[in-house]
TrEMBL record:
GO terms for biological process: response to stress. Residues 9-74 form the RNA polymerase sigma-70 region domain. Belongs to the sigma-70 factor family. ECF subfamily. One of its GO terms (molecular function) is DNA binding. It comes from Clostridium tetani. InterPro entries: RNA_pol_sigma-70-like, RNA_pol_sigma-70_dom, RNA_pol_sigma70_ECF_CS, RNA_pol_sigma70_r2, RNA_pol_sigma70_r4_t2, RNA_pol_sigma_r2, RNA_pol_sigma_r3/r4-like, WH-like_DNA-bd_sf. It comes from the Bacteria. Residues 108-157 form the RNA polymerase sigma factor 70 region 4 type domain. This is RNA polymerase sigma factor. SUPFAM superfamilies: Sigma2 domain of RNA polymerase sigma factors, Sigma3 and sigma4 domains of RNA polymerase sigma factors.
């Protein structure tokens, strides 16, 4: 495998994988370790992977590393939506009440997301939290754009149902 391809892959994917892992609940150091371990595996095994599939393969390797660490450490996946900064930018104390309500809503969103199926949670985080395009998600997951749209439609409906059941009764 050429070093240039690996370097380009690293430039494109490392930050996306890292941010995704953080949003899934990894500590920063653990996310860095998972990204590093994933690229080490890429160096070792990627000769058998088609160049056009490298991005999705690497993302799956990173996810598998993450899931293995969860199993090993018996840590349960919680979205890192505690970082309210990804949903709001508190720049002044003028509207404290409004900010507190926004923080409460962020916590409500976190609770709903954590009760979804893994696939739904992952897609909603990639699309709406990380603001990736369908094309970028396609590259990461290695599935067709129409399939992504269908899965996202289902994930949104699943989220709406959970939200309504918890907060609109």
């Amino acid at each position: 495998m050429e070093h240039r391809i690996l370097y380009d892959l690293y430039k494109r994917q490392a930050k996306i994988i890292y941010l995704y892992l953080i949003k899934r609940g990894c500590q920063k150091e653990e996310a860095e370790d998972i990204v590093q371990d994933s690229f080490i595996k890429a160096i070792e095994y990627m000769d058998g992977v088609a160049v056009d599939k490298l991005s999705s393969w690497l993302f799956k390797v990173a996810l598998n590393n993450y899931y293995n660490r969860i199993k090993k450490n018996r840590i349960y996946s919680k979205s890192s939506i505690d970082d309210v900064g990804m949903y709001m930018d508190i720049s002044s104390d003028i509207n404290i009440e409004k900010n507190l309500l926004s923080k409460e809503k962020s916590n409500d969103i976190k609770l709903c997301l954590n009760s979804l199926k893994e696939k739904s949670k992952s897609l909603l985080i990639l699309k709406y939290d990380m603001e990736l395009s369908y094309r970028e998600i396609l590259i990461l997951l290695g599935i067709k754009e129409d399939t992504i749209k269908t899965y996202l439609y289902r994930a949104r409906n699943e989220f709406k149902k959970v939200w309504r059941d918890k907060y609109e009764k």
